[in-house]
């Protein structure tokens, strides 16, 4: 049986979690103080995921860039591919918070959405 | 002179939440003064996620979190002025401010809410030896350059200080193609949240060296290398432990300082540990009708707590304006922070004025594992909570119950301290 010590990133509490693993099967999760921690720990040892946040260049906007995020988590291993697609994207103002700016980024099934409003100049 | 019931100084998360809560508590005549060209404060450049889990039960980015509160402000039709610099607040609550449209103007306020936030400890305050070439930025400045302006400050980066902004910028610069070689931290523990060490450093294999500092900066026009060294228990560099890192950029994330020039000029008394005003249970300063909340009061690690605190300041200010506040008949109980507890906010409580439950926030002085947070009413221990881990980088809190305090009419002192057992 393998034991893994994790720090939960589900919220700023940062609970210390111990996961017991047998091959690829989670046997137990301990130390978390909420359901988010349990879910995080089970995911983290099998298939770690992260939210990616960055900015995309805006044309004709009142600001040069709009902040964006992946609408939900993507596999940790795809973060850098995702950044490449975000970096090469260009969007036109106006942009509204929640607008989908890239659909299905890197075939992850997850969209890139705007996290702020940008007015047209 | 224009007259307002409440003037809120600062339109960041604290100011927004305070203004909205004051309005919801029945005060109509409120104005928010903001020196930037938009509301939202520093949240606008904090594009990473992790905000709002306590407040909204979902994970938001900084701009999204700010927008939630901006919408509330718009909905309540609370007026605000942007690009407006407050120059002075007087003891009798006359606020002098200026902007391009109105020039210099004065506002008479019944109550003032201080919500100016904090700023980063600058390079000059750190006494790093070596040259002073281009390429040295505070982490927050780099964050603004990358996230708002769209410029990369450099390609090869060393970060001094493991505050949250430094950790966040280590990841951000890496994602944008820079090589972050190292985060060096003077203290034997990180100043940032644990989750940020995991997802900003560990995820990208960026080393964190605790008990290390920068002892030399090289470069004429631009930073070309920095030397770091291990430090002893007194923070003094240990000879022979020097390591040289070539880099073109040094980011500094070495702490935040509440921005209290205005408060001091008004005669507000300061706590030398928090660098923020000394406040009572109503978050009121020593000057009647001047309240404080958010990072100007003490530096928080979670904006959720800022919003919570600001809501309280807004409610208190509203009570004061409406004349509903019970007179502060000097019936105050002091909260003593000792043995591991560096400070508490608030630092005094008038039991008659407090709500049914009062959150007292504090920070510890070092890392504690398996220790207890204890609260004493005079000599009686009423709280003894075991904590797995406590660190200076993470704010702690205890909740005091009014009824419990009322049971002791002769109460003189409340003590909050850390006990091993």
From TrEMBL, chain A:
TM region(s), chain numbering: none
Name of one Pfam family that matches: DUF1667
Protein's name in the database: CxxC motif-containing protein
Top-level lineage group: Bacteria
InterPro entries xref list: CPE0013-like_sf, DUF1667
Lineage: Bacteria, Bacillati, Bacillota, Clostridia, Lachnospirales
TrEMBL record, chain B:
Key words of the record: Oxidoreductase
Domain FAD/NAD(P)-binding residues, every copy: 4-304
MF terms (GO), sorted A to Z: oxidoreductase activity
Superkingdom of this protein's organism: Bacteria
SUPFAM superfamilies: FAD/NAD(P)-binding domain (SSF51905)
Pfam family, one: Pyr_redox_2
Protein name per Swiss-Prot or TrEMBL: Thioredoxin reductase
Annotated organism of origin: Lachnobacterium bovis DSM 14045
């Amino acid at each position: 049986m393998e034991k893994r010590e994790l720090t939960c990133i589900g919220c700023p509490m940062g609970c210390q979690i111990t996961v017991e693993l047998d091959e690829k099967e989670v046997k137990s999760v301990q130390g978390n103080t909420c359901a988010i921690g349990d879910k995080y720990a089970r995911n983290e040892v099998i298939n770690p995921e992260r939210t990616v946040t960055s900015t995309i260049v805006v044309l004709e906007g009142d600001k040069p860039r709009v902040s964006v995020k992946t609408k939900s988590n993507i596999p940790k291993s795809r973060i850098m591919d995702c950044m490449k697609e975000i970096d090469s994207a260009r969007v036109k103002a106006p942009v509204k918070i929640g607008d989908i700016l890239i659909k299905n980024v890197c075939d992850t099934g997850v969209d890139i959405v705007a996290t702020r409003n940008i007015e047209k100049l | 002179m224009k007259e307002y019931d409440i003037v809120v100084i600062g339109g960041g998360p604290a100011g927004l939440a305070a203004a909205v809560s004051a309005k919801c508590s029945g005060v109509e005549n409120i104005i928010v003064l903001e020196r930037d060209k938009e509301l939202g404060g520093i949240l606008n450049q904090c594009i990473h996620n992790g905000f709002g889990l306590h407040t909204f039960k979902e994970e938001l980015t900084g701009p999204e979190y700010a927008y939630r509160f901006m919408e509330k402000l718009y909905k309540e039709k609370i007026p605000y002025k942007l690009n407006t610099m407050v120059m002075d607040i007087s003891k009798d609550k006359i606020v002098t401010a200026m902007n391009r449209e109105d020039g210099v103007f004065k506002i008479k306020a019944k109550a003032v809410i201080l919500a100016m936030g904090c700023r980063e400890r600058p390079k000059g305050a750190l006494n790093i030896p070596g040259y002073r070439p281009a390429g040295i930025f505070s982490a927050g400045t780099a964050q603004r350059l990358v996230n708002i302006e769209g410029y990369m400050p450099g390609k090869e980066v060393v970060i001094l200080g493991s505050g949250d902004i430094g950790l966040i910028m280590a990841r951000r610069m890496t994602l944008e193609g820079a090589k972050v070689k190292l985060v060096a931290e003077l203290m034997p523990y990180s100043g940032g949240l644990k989750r940020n060490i995991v997802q900003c450093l560990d995820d990208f294999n960026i080393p964190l060296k605790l008990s290390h500092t920068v002892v030399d900066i090289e470069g004429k026009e631009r930073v070309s290398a920095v030397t770091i060294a291990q430090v002893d228990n007194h923070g003094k560099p240990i000879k022979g432990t020097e390591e040289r890192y070539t880099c073109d950029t040094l980011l500094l994330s070495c702490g935040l300082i509440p921005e209290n020039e205005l408060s001091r000029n008004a005669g507000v008394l300061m706590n030398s540990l928090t660098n923020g005003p000394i406040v009572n249970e109503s978050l009121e300063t020593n000057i009647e009708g001047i309240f404080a909340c958010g990072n100007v009061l003490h530096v928080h690690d979670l904006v959720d707590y800022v919003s919570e605190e600001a809501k309280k300041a807004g409610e208190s200010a509203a009570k004061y304006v409406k004349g509903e506040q019970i007179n502060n008949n000097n019936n105050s109980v002091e909260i003593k922070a000792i043995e591991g507890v560096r400070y508490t906010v608030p630092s005094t409580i008038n039991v008659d004025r407090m709500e049914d439950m009062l959150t007292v926030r504090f920070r510890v002085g070092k890392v504690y594992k398996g220790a207890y947070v204890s609260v004493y009413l005079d000599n009686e221990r009423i709280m003894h909570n075991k904590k797995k881990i406590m660190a200076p980088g993470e704010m702690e809190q205890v909740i005091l119950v009014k009824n419990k305090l009322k049971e002791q009419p002769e109460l003189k002192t409340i003590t909050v301290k850390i006990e091993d057992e």
